[in-house]
Amino acid sequence: MLIYARLPPESYAAFYTALAAIIGISLIVKALRTPRLLLPPGPRGLPVLGYIPFLGTQLHLTFTKLGDLYGPIYKIWLGRKLCVILSSPDVVSEVVKDQDAIFANRDSTVASMIATYGGNDIGFGDYNPEWRKLRKIFMHKMLGNSTLDASFGLRREAVKKSVREVYGKIGTSVNIGQVGRRIVINGMVSMIWGGSVKGVVEGSDLQGLLGELMELVGAPNVSDFFPALAWLDLQRIEVRIKKMFDQIDRMFDLVIARNQENMEEEASSQESSKRSTDLLQYLMELKDSDDASSSISITQVKAMLMDIAVGGSDTTSSTLEWAMSELLLHPQAMKTVQEELIQVVGLDDLVTESHLPKLHYLDAVIKETQRLHPAFPLLVPRRPSQATEVGGYFIPEDTKVFINVYAMHRNPTLWDSPLEFRPERFLDGETNWNYSGKDMKYLPFGSGRRACPGIPLAERSLKYVLASFVHCFDWEVPKGVKIDLEEIFGITMRKKEPLAAIPTPRLSILELYDE
Ligand code: HEM
């Protein structure tokens, strides 16, 4: 204080000027020394529209070609939306492993928000404690091994029904995709509410409604690229998806009401011990639970039903159709699968889920099918909750991040002869191939916090249905028909031309087809 008091006023001014100069210079030096991160490279596109006019309909192919030009991390602008596309194990690992928590949000769209009850589900909900609660319930309780074991009977009924149906069409051409979709939807529906509510889906076209809903969720929407124009709903996607959604929602309301009536009736007739359980019943019990760590709202119940119906149906049935197409194109692989089935099951019996762990070649066929034809070729896009760095580039908050597994699964630097269908590569004995998402070059179910929670059910359903199809029947492509493997990009990647083939019976006891 004394010293200050003795200094003349001009000295204060000089002191503060010098101090400001030193701070200013050190900030400039620091800024110059810190390398400024750039956005990833990428094509220019047009003013305002960005790359929208050049996307085409086969997004996975467009993105793969751009990856060949710009490398494993590049950007495009779709209107006002910045998108980054990743396609090498290194950069993907930075996102789904090193910075998984930052990239744990989905990039919601107008359509996905409507279809998921405003993001009250697992697929599009934001990463927060409520989402973690739902995901835990979904994975450990609803799709845990004991729940799946208990519901095997319901899946078996769905498979047997379809085997009977195909047997009725022996010698004629069968649309395999359609039969597969029906088995998967019926199996899914009976697991969800078949134990307690009968007959709600018969007469209502759940399969058709889900198909249309998925198509609209996957369609590029101007409202997402130019949010200021969303109120115009230029492509009428919002109007159309609301219509589909309302019909499915009404079906859920009906099912829930019936479930409640049945539970009340059973309680009053004191038959609750005989009650058959299903996922809906389990969810309704959580809805009424007093335990805050597991209680859920009725909207969350319906959003989870939607997740199972949407997430589990098209993915599983498309993969089945691709697997059958590859087997029909590769008779030696078909023969090997059928021989394995004779050894493990025998021609005098039907496949059951207890046989599945012994069907190693069949498992390799399904893994190879998913390598070449991943159901979500670009996974489900993620969105960083803060600005960050990937592959040495700047990634702003809220960028839409695509992971191009289609390109990685076909990359010749990662796979030998990547375009060949060779199930044996999954039987090499050295690598423990699985769907955990730890090996970044093989991600059919994604990886990290947002990886598919339906893997246990998907794995069982794929093996069980495919094994039953090729064990019960020999299949032949109709004369003059050539199987092609052209894809259509949508939210899931489907086969463009439906697969048709002619079945003939294989089992030695014909009564098995009528069981
Ligand atoms: C062949 C069958 C299936 C395939 C190939 C598949 C694949 C995938 C993929 C790639 C994702 C995104 C993962 C990521 O972004 O990292 C996903 C998410 C999801 N899948 Fe599956 N799936 C299948 C079956 C199922 C089934 C049977 C269910 C439910 C019963 C299901 C429910 C979900 C849900 C709820 C999500 C969103 C997860 C989240 O955002 O946290 N999936 N699936």
TrEMBL record:
<protein>
    <recommendedName>
        <fullName>Cytochrome P450</fullName>
    </recommendedName>
</protein>
<dbReference type="InterPro" id="IPR002401">
    <property type="entry name" value="Cyt_P450_E_grp-I"/>
</dbReference>
<dbReference type="GO" id="GO:0005506">
    <property type="term" value="F:iron ion binding"/>
</dbReference>
<dbReference type="Pfam" id="PF00067">
    <property type="entry name" value="p450"/>
</dbReference>
<keyword id="KW-0479">Metal-binding</keyword>
<keyword id="KW-1133">Transmembrane helix</keyword>
<feature type="binding site" description="axial binding residue">
    <location>
        <position position="452"/>
    </location>
    <ligand>
        <name>heme</name>
    </ligand>
</feature>
<comment type="similarity">
    <text>Belongs to the cytochrome P450 family.</text>
</comment>
<dbReference type="GO" id="GO:0004497">
    <property type="term" value="F:monooxygenase activity"/>
</dbReference>
<keyword id="KW-0812">Transmembrane</keyword>
<dbReference type="GO" id="GO:0020037">
    <property type="term" value="F:heme binding"/>
</dbReference>
<keyword id="KW-0349">Heme</keyword>
<dbReference type="InterPro" id="IPR017972">
    <property type="entry name" value="Cyt_P450_CS"/>
</dbReference>
<keyword id="KW-0503">Monooxygenase</keyword>
<dbReference type="InterPro" id="IPR036396">
    <property type="entry name" value="Cyt_P450_sf"/>
</dbReference>
<keyword id="KW-0560">Oxidoreductase</keyword>
<keyword id="KW-0408">Iron</keyword>
<feature type="transmembrane region" description="Helical">
    <location>
        <begin position="12"/>
        <end position="32"/>
    </location>
</feature>
<keyword id="KW-0472">Membrane</keyword>
<dbReference type="GO" id="GO:0016705">
    <property type="term" value="F:oxidoreductase activity, acting on paired donors, with incorporation or reduction of molecular oxygen"/>
</dbReference>
<dbReference type="InterPro" id="IPR001128">
    <property type="entry name" value="Cyt_P450"/>
</dbReference>
